[in-house]
Amino acid sequence: MARNNQTTSELECKSCGSTAVIEIDLTLPDGTEVTFNSCHKCEARWWRQGAKKLDLEVILDLARKPRA
Predict the structure, then answer these.
(1) In the chain, where are the structural domains located?
(2) Greatest CA separation found in the chain?
(3) Beta partners for 22?
(4) Average pLDDT in the chain
(5) Reduced to 3 states, what is the DSSP secondary structure of residue 63?
(6) Residues facing 23 on adjacent strands
(7) What's the predicted TM-score (pTM) here?
(8) Residues 6 or more apart from 14 whose CB is under 8 A from it?
(9) What are the angstrom distances between the C-alpha of 10 and each of 7, 20, 23, 29, 36?
């Protein structure tokens, strides 16, 4: 479930330096709030929880867990 979608030049891709990055705030099924980022130039994708970068495996595990 998306909370907020935005594209902003303040974001920068760590892979290529492009500012053509989209940011989507999401709430996972277990209630965890995360942010998904994707670069339109090099197609790099990454997930964050606050300032902490999360591996895709962590996101998939959290997405499988039901709300408590």
Answers:
(1) 2-64
(2) 39
(3) 7, 38
(4) 87
(5) helix
(6) 6, 37
(7) 0.76
(8) 44, 46
(9) 9, 9, 11, 29, 15
